[in-house]
Amino acid sequence: MSLAISLSPASDVPIFRQIMQQVHRAVSVGRLSVGEQLPAVRVLAEELVINPNTVARAYQELIREGVLESRSGRGVFVTERRQIFSAEERTRRLQHAAEQFCHEAILLGSELPQIRTILEAKWKQLQRETHVIETPEERKRK
After folding, report:
1. Which class is domain 15-78?
2. Most CB atoms within 10 A, among 32, 57, 86, 92?
3. pLDDT tens digits for 83-96?
4. How far is the C-alpha of 67 from the C-alpha of 65, rounded, in Å?
């Protein structure tokens, strides 16, 4: 298993969200693959020195989002990627992420051409590394 979670207690982001973000990232870049089992709630809580309820909450949210699935008596596993959000919800989430990204870029004094270049380069890099991210053209072909 390739799940190394690093928490920042001083962060404004709640611990359970930090866990969720890192699991999301591990799945999106292929460090965690479909069918791979995550550590048991108690095991991960002990590793991270946090309350097991925090890990359980992160896992439950990831299950609700369709990233993980719970197999009775066996544990929690990465599930096949499926679309559980409506088009409106996907758009809302993407707009939220874009807003956060733009705020950071503005604070750094970036200009739109530089932002586009960096975003396109990162997108292409992740496509090469993961083979998970599909372009709209690839989706149309399916």
Report:
1. mainly alpha
2. 32
3. 677 889 889 989 99
4. 6
